[in-house]
Amino acid sequence: MDFRQLLYFVTAVEEGSISAAARKLFLSQPPVTAQIKALEEELGCTLLVRGARAVRMTEEGRLLYDRAKAMLALRESAAEEIAGRVRSGGG
Predict the structure, then answer these.
(1) Gap between the Cα atoms of 52 and 32, Å rounded
(2) pLDDT at residue 81 is higher than 60
């Protein structure tokens, strides 16, 4: 599991479809699909039920979505904090 996979998953949930997530991420659909599928394989469960035009989360998907949002926010916060220290000469 890596941050890229989590970002693709969160974006697919928030955009409502994998193709919309790909557009938002400035990617084609196959890499987004492949990374979400790899995440599902690693975790051993289905995270998203794919419909004709939309995705919906499974119970496991809901759990991961909440955790992934927190992890991505912590990553962003840490990067900002470190960048601030570097800019101020504290690093």
Answers:
(1) 16
(2) yes
